[in-house]
Amino acid sequence: MAGRFSPRPTRTTVRGGHVVVPGGVPRPAPAPGLRRAWTPEGPFDLGLVLGPLRRGPGDPTFKATPDGAVWRVCRTPAGAGTLKVTVRGAAVEAEAWGPGGEWLLDRLPPLLGASDEPDAFVPRHRIVAATWRRRPGLRLTRTGLVMESLIPSILEQKVTTDEAYRAWRLLVRKFGEPAPGPAPAGMSVMPTAREWALIPSWEWHRAGVDNKRASTILRAVRVAGRLEEAVGMSPQDARARLELVPGIGPWTSAETVQRSHGAADEVTVGDVHLPGIVGYALAGDRDADDAVMLSLLEPYAGQRHRAARFILLSGRVPGRRTPKMPRWDIGRL
Fold it and tell me: Model-level pTM?
């Protein structure tokens, strides 16, 4: 979920349409972006909706600021774009900058869950029902972008989330480009497919990415156009196309289409923690495997991913009995 962001205060003044920064050096004030407003039907929680797009507290493509705004930086088919989303009463206001700004505003409603069908969900367990009543603003985002969810999902394969978040942060900041518009400091657009392909092997190593994950990303970016086409397919067909790339399996494809497609039924299998969390919450079985998890989620067929989200939001998690997964920083080897 989106966390708090506390930027270092900087004294600036505006004189004659210019921003004067410390030292008295003027620069042009940021140009206003394109704007759009949208009013969701029913309860809406901006953090719950867009939170899954955030890859760690230092994600250079996603920031939540103290004024309640969420900033998102994307590589769209039209180019780089920055999107600022703020809730004002019952309405959502958005502003966008860059070549991809108009593309982002055109797809604002599905990004905020307009194509989702939360009313189709019926709780079947007491703990799920309690969370469903407590968090009614949950909607499933649909970004319409495949590669921006696929690459960080590949980085998250078989490592701790801290390691994956660090790799994503380092690679995007070093090989991406500055965010268009007046985005918060440090925000960057992820590299293009060609730029990912040109990253030297030692830079993957410095970011802590082993050869297996780096090679999978390189195979994926070579066919990035074909993978992006999957956004027009059903989630099942999209997953099948993604899994044609060696190194992309059911875990990675599910994590991708949950975000790119807003896929309500695509539950993640092959996860280290999720089966035990679902098993413990629904049946008191902390040792549940994927088969048990899928059996427990069967009453939610068509809505299994949403059910898993509510279970995670319930906070009912089994206590740890084994050591944490060890962290291996190959960049220091």
Answer: 0.87
